[in-house]
Amino acid sequence: MATQIEIEGWTRDQMAARAARELKDGYYVNLGIGIPTLVANNIPAGMTVTLQSENGMLGIGPFPYEDEVDPDLINAGKQTVSELPQTAYFGSEQSFAMIRGGHIDLAVLGAMEISENGDIANWMIPGKMIKGMGGAMDLVAGVKRIIVVMEHNAKDGSPKFIPECTLPLTGKNVVDMIITDLAVFERPDHASPFKLLETAPGVTPDEVAAKTTARYE
What we know:
There is one protein chain. A nine-stranded mixed sheet has the order 4-3-2-1-5-8-10-11-12, with helices on both faces. Strands 7-6-9 form a three-stranded mixed sheet, with no helix packed on it. By secondary structure, the protein is an alpha/beta fold. The relative contact order is 0.17. The termini are far apart. Helix content is 14%, strand content 22%. A hairpin with a 4-residue loop joins strand 6 and strand 7 (120-121).
């Protein structure tokens, strides 16, 4: 009996490293919980990027190793983070003023589902315990560019890049780039369809298509 070959694709850290390639010098960036937090450890050498958290922190350092953890330093997802010499602290109302005022250049978020027209669902699964939406709705509405980093398929194998979201939406027509463990999709503007930009090493476009139900170019 023939055995199904599981596609390898990128690891979580490699996905974060691919997202880090989208950073630019001088950017103010918000990182969502999950894989996006790993972007902090992949900022290119010599590049100045200021990381912002909704709970009132500007200038987040690399994700700390176990012996570096300070329990008083957490991000909006309640994960421990590190600080830098230039880190600034303030109230969450000022943090959201930065987001709503369009002062954050890029947000890297996780997602449960993305639709082919750029809708995102990333805060709730009905009937399951959730932490709440956090700042996600404000981020997708107020940040200049939205990149989603997620596994290409759910644990049960079902696609996450789909024709239409089935879960409660976080935002409509807001996603600019999708980075999964198998591929990268991007669109130039919110009126255009997503285009397959690249695949992970060893992954073919046909394999990506077989695990995706959304339409893309």
